[in-house]
Amino acid sequence: MTAFMIQAPGTECSILEKPENPEVKLNVSEMIRYWKYPVEEYEVETEDSYILTLVRIPYGRMGNNLSAQRPVVFLQHGLLATATSWVSNLPNNSLGFILADEGFDVWMGNSRGCTYSLKHAFLSTNSTQYWAFSFDEMARYDLPASIDYVVKKTGQKIYYVGHSQGTIIGFLAFSTLPKLAQQIKTFFALGPALSIKYMRSIPFILLFQLPLPSLKYLLGDKDFLPETVLNKYLATKVCDNEAIGVLCGNIIFSLTGFDPKNLNMSRIDVYASHNPAGTSVQNIVHFYQGYHEIQEILRAYDWGSPKENLAHYNQPFPPTYNLSTMKVPTVLWSGLRDLLADPVDVSLLVPQIPNVIYHKIISEYDHLAFIFGTDAPQRIYNEIIRMIKETP
User: Fold this and answer.
1) Is the peptide bond before 276 cis (omega within 30 degrees of 0)?
2) Annotated catalytic, 338?
3) How does the average pLDDT of the chain come out, rounded?
4) What share of the chain is helix, strand, coil (3-state, %, to 5)?
5) Is 14 in the active site?
């Protein structure tokens, strides 16, 4: 509302309007084609009948020796995001494009319930049954279906890069599904999370202060913050003005934190048009449960009664996730200004991972700097590329 009020006078701010970025109105594959990269889309059906879209950049703009086998990198987005996370900046600053130009075969996942994975074999998104999932199901069904497809298609094991929720489902899947873990060469975790007990995101903290019945009444039982036409409107009519670009950034990124000094501010309209991109209310409730967990642990989703839990888990209470069996070599980058993957939560997470080979703490990084930061190539991406190329 503040943004609209500032924009309303029109004439005073009109001289500060900047050209609209074309990607504002493009979908993820169109964004990739816009920058002259090849792109492929595949639909994958999970064991529980959700249909996910995988996006592939098979090689870079220079071709990268097409006859050679290229190492496969799988990118998994975070909460309320999509595969656009990896291609929203300019080609020299977006991990998806950088990896492709460095000679890698790049695949990007889309978790159920986000803009590009809203299909189901027989359920409609208008039904509450469709939205009865959390990151439990993303780890149990989405990741195995996606990774199995990529491995069969390419004939290779993969390097996995996750951001935020993408790290959570990686930790859960690779610690509970040993056959899946065997297909992962290295797990690169950006803004890693498991427990969110000490998160500092004010909007989430305020939301999570509500009693659970009130939270469910407020949010309903279907989707949470889906991508809508309002995203595009704000991006093109409000956030395209330099005078309020920082204000837009603060509003859009209020859940995660915002550092205009490490963002390409000319791309705010692109970020705003594609984020947030939706998830289920049940997923948010699962995070709510983790925030209120007495112990510093992560449990599977609590279905609300011993009877319901018994039906899902064969025990009256949700099981605890244990990372001690996860043997995948793991590399982590975390930030001291991260409001979601708080440094305290990260410090509790790292000792639980059996095979940490590298952990870099970046003091000035917030939660989105890992994917949108202007210095992310120098601080993170070049290290990922070097580690992959040095892997036997």
Assistant:
1) yes
2) yes
3) 91
4) 45, 15, 40
5) no
Mean pLDDT, to the nearest integer, of 32-58?
A: 98
Predicted confidence at residue 64, as pLDDT, reads 65
DSSP for 134-162, please give it.
Answer: -HHHIIIIIHHHHHHHHHHHHSS-EEEEE
pTM: 0.93
Measure the CA–CA gap between 348 and 211, rounded to whole angstroms: 27
With contact defined as beta carbons under 8 Å apart, do 224 and 280 qualify? Answer: yes
All residues at 6 or more sequence positions from 233 whose CB lies less than 8 Å from its CB, including other chains: none
| 146, 164, 175, 195: the active-site residue | 164
Count of residues making up the chain: 392
Active-site option among 77, 120, 286, 367? 367
Report which residue type is found at 20: E
Of 160 and 392, which is predicted with more confidence? 160
CA torsion sign for 237, 238, 243, 249 is negative
Triad 119, 35, 32: Cα angle to 5°:
15
279 φ/ψ angles, rounded to the nearest 5 degrees: -160, -170
- Which residues have a Cβ under 8 Å from the Cβ of 205 and sit 6 or more positions away? 199
359 catalytic? Reply is no
Among the listed residues 142, 269, 338, 366, the single catalytic one is 338
For 91, what's the count of Cα atoms within 13 Å in the CB-facing half-sphere? 15
CA angle at residue 271 from 96 to 240, to 5 degrees? 135
- Strand ranges, E, within 181-238: 184-190, 223-224
Residue-wise DSSP of 320-388? BP-GGG--S-EEEEEETT-SSS-HHHHHHHGGG-TTEEEEEEETT--TTHHHH-TTHIIIIIHHHHHHH
- Count CB atoms within 10 A of the CB of residue 138: 29
Phi-psi region of 337 (alpha: psi -120 to 50; beta: other; left: phi over 0): alpha
CA angle 63, 166, 325 (to 5 degrees): 110
Longest CA pairwise span in the chain (Å): 64
Measured CA to CA, the distance from residue 256 to residue 216 in angstroms comes to 22
- Closest by CA to 74, choosing from 176, 178, 130, 154, is 154
Q: Name the nearest CA neighbour of 48 among 117, 150, 107, 109.
A: 117
Q: What is the pLDDT of residue 240?
A: 62
